[in-house]
Design a protein that fits this description.
The structure holds two protein chains of two kinds.
Chain A (H helix, E strand, L loop, with lengths): L1 E7 L6 H14 L4 E4 L2 E3 L3 E3 L5 E3 H9 L11 E5 L5 E5 L2 E3 L7 H20 L3 E9 L13 H7 L3 E6 L5 H11 L2 H4 L2 E9 L3 H15 L3 E6 L13 H19 L5 H8 L4
Parallel strand pairs in A: 1-9, 1-10, 2-9, 3-6, 10-11, 11-12
Antiparallel strand pairs in A: 4-5, 6-7, 7-8
Chain B lengths: L11 H10 L37 E4 L5 E4 L9 H11 L7 H12 L7 E7 L6 H14 L4 E4 L2 E3 L3 E3 L5 E3 H9 L11 E5 L4 E6 L2 E7 H25 L4 E5 L14 H10 L3 E6 L5 H10 L3 H4 L2 E9 L7 H11 L3 E6 L13 H6 L3 H20 L2 H10 L2
Parallel strand pairs in B: 3-11, 3-12, 4-11, 5-8, 12-13, 13-14
Antiparallel strand pairs in B: 1-2, 6-7, 8-9, 9-10
Helix pairs in contact in B: 4-5, 4-12, 6-7, 8-10
Chain lengths: 272, 398
């Protein structure tokens, strides 16, 4: 099975958008692509044509693949309700009386993730997997489902994304990489710096140093894009889809000059 | 001020007594004011301890007649308002003490008012980590313990500025921190202010005054490596000679490995000020452990050794889930996590918010609002951060 997984050093690093770019790229190459996010925490959801509920960002990614959204693309969904309640949606359907803190529920979630990934991969030539939050939350490593656990389940190569807009991106990528145990670290084949503004020549010495330190190549520096964050608060789904697809089209076009897609293809092919 | 060898002259003591008889504080009517700096205390215009021969405060220079004379023109300690007040009180109504008796008084007073400030520096793993608020909180906490505290940020990039007492422009964040110390803001607290003007160009403000417009490359390649260092050093030295404690704020992240040679605002400032450092990291976005670990490990071992603790900031919900991660981070880095600060709602102006400029320059009700916010932030920080350990870190130094 060909696949690739995008992990982040924080939440909001740009995983969803970069996953969508990869979905679009491989779809344009004539492949049948599926997005996959094992576990999502979002109040923004989408009901598939067959009546299953998944995270909105996987619906977008499905459209980037020119496909209908499907439950297998996001088998575990936590949907915050009012006050501190949390609805748990497994394989597209809400389940009652489960809390995410119950140790036995991890088994239940993992089984949904496995089913989801199996179905997603059966329906596709290539699966683009997206992690969740920061990939090295060392306080939660034994509870991880959506990051390295999923990468191992799918035996996927990983690219790590860091957001430079807040500064500290080298530290974030280096720290995320180094806080993972060596056997997991070796899955990380490349890193991407997202939301860069300014003079790239000033950044380059840092990228070279990080490539040396981690012994993996940088797959690109994506520029800051305002439209990157337009996923919230449009009430009409069709209108929203239209806007988002237009943004993705534009961003994909721009990304050609910044992302090393050849390197990413080689990573998918297992040549890195 | 330099008084030649007058200290030994008969009438010198008369001048001391005369200056002590004037009201305390700043004498703006004096034709020499400000002989040291704006807002200096003039109670001890003629220093009773002259010549103290304390090489932390003065030095021998060549006199006009070719001999040696003790000069204390660089001494700012005697122009601290608390020193002026205390010395005046101790000398009030007494006959002329002998010089030795006076030096004993000086020695006693030194224990209360430091001749050179201690310092501590707060650096962030990212921008927006919470440096500014932690510095403001520490300023207020230590000021409330009776120390004379000043904030310092060598270089700030911000569009919102405030007016310093001398009339120049400093960043609004340092003005708020000065307020937290119950001081008037002065340009030395933020000697270099970069006001972005778009297209990679910034207006560089030095000691409150417009200096030059520069692009990022000119700033790093020319300014920082030439005049920048001296500007930072002189400004900090001035504060260090007038306060018990200077709480220093870094800028952005100290681990921008593309800029490590030219990063004046973080590790260079830590070296100039010889400050022990604390790293603050915002946990709201996730990845806090990775950012803390990565930041320290990308520094050189000498730089890393300045860091004595970590503060985790902006925690929503319970911190008990973090303990395993905290234990592991402490083990890996060999320094303690000094606290987990919860998310604090406040109405202090954000660093780059529009319209913030007007707020900090007005007086009255707005100041009251700032004061209430600072007091709340300080008490939350004091509740969740190990302040005793920070005191010890300051005491032990690097």
């Amino acid at each position: 099975m060909n696949n690739i997984m995008v992990l982040g050093s924080t939440s909001g690093a740009g995983k969803s958008t970069i996953s969508a770019l990869l979905c679009k790229h491989f779809t344009l190459q004539g492949m049948n692509v599926s997005p996959f996010k094992a576990q999502n925490l979002s109040s923004k959801t989408f009901i598939t044509p067959t009546g299953e509920e998944i995270g909105m960002s996987q619906a977008y990614q499905a459209w980037a693949c020119k496909r209908e959204p499907h439950w297998s693309m996001n088998p575990v969904l936590f949907k915050p309700g009012h006050e501190s309640s949390m609805q748990i949606i497994l394989k597209g359907h809400p389940i009652a009386d489960a809390t995410s803190r119950d140790p036995s529920s991890r088994e239940v979630f993992m089984s949904a993730v496995k089913d989801g990934y199996r179905v997603a991969s059966e329906r596709s030539d290539i699966v683009v997997l997206e992690g969740s939050g920061g990939a090295a939350e060392i306080n939660l490593s034994d509870r991880d489902i959506a990051n390295m656990t999923t990468a191992e389940l799918a035996d996927a190569p990983v690219i790590l994304v860091g957001d430079i807009d807040r500064g500290g991106v080298f530290a974030g990528i280096y720290g995320t990489f180094m806080l993972l145990p060596p056997e997991k670290r070796i899955r990380i084949k490349s890193f991407i710096i997202n939301r860069f503004r300014g003079d790239i020549s000033i950044l380059e010495p840092g990228i070279e140093r990080l490539e040396e330190l981690l012994d993996i190549p940088c797959a690109g520096v994506l520029p800051y894009m305002k439209s990157q964050r337009i996923t919230e608060d449009l009430s009409d789904t069709n209108q929203e889809k239209h806007v988002w697809m237009k943004n993705l089209e534009e961003f994909y076009h721009i990304s050609q000059g910044h992302l090393n897609y050849t390197l990413l293809e080689q990573i998918v092919a297992g040549n890195q | 001020m330099m008084v030649d060898s007058e200290g030994e002259k008969e009438d010198y003591w008369d001048k001391v007594v005369e200056s002590l008889s004037r009201p305390n504080g700043t004498n703006v009517d004096c034709e020499y004011y400000p002989c040291h700096h704006q807002g200096q205390d003039c109670t001890l215009c003629f220093c009773p301890f002259y010549p103290c021969l304390d090489d932390r405060l003065g030095k021998y220079v060549k006199s006009r007649r070719g001999g040696q004379v003790w000069s204390c023109e660089d001494c700012l300690w005697i122009h601290r308002p608390d020193v002026g007040r205390d010395v005046k009180m101790r000398l009030h109504g007494s006959d002329r003490p002998t010089h030795n008796e006076l030096l004993l008084i000086k020695k006693d007073i030194e224990r209360l008012y430091r001749i050179r400030a201690k310092s501590i520096m707060i650096m962030g793993a990212t921008s927006g980590a919470g440096k500014t608020l932690l510095v403001a909180a520490l300023c207020r906490i230590f000021a409330d313990k009776g120390m004379r505290v000043a904030p310092f940020k060598s270089q700030n990039m911000s569009t919102s500025s405030a007016i310093a007492t001398e009339g120049g422009e400093i960043s609004q964040a340092q003005a708020i921190q000065a307020f937290a110390c119950r001081l008037e803001p002065e340009s030395r607290m933020n000697p270099i202010l970069l006001k972005p003007e778009g297209d990679n160009i910034s207006q560089v403000i030095v000691l409150g005054q417009p200096y030059q417009k520069m692009d990022a490359r000119t700033y790093y390649d020319d300014f920082v490596t030439n005049e920048g260092y001296g500007i930072v050093k002189n400004s900090f030295d001035h504060l260090a000679r007038r306060f018990d404690l200077v709480v220093i704020e870094g800028a952005g992240s100290p681990a921008e490995i593309n800029l490590s040679d030219v990063d004046l605002a973080n590790m260079k400032t830590a070296e100039i000020t010889n400050a022990p450092c604390i790293l603050i990291v915002n946990i709201e976005w996730g990845g806090a452990f990775a950012y803390a670990y990565g930041t320290l490990m990308l520094l050189s071992p000498e730089q890393r050794s300045r860091f004595k603790g970590i503060v985790i900031n902006n925690m929503h919900g319970s911190a008990t889930d973090l303990q395993k991660g905290i234990d592991k981070l402490e083990r890996l880095l060999g320094i303690p996590v000094l606290g987990v600060v919860p998310h604090i709602d406040h109405s202090l102006p954000e660093e780059d918010s529009q319209g913030a400029h007007d707020r900090s320059n007005s007086r009255g009700p707005v100041n009251k609002e700032i004061d209430v916010n600072i007091a709340r932030i300080a008490s939350t920080v004091a509740e969740h951060v190990d302040i005793e350990s920070i005191l010890k870190i300051m005491e032990d130094g690097v």
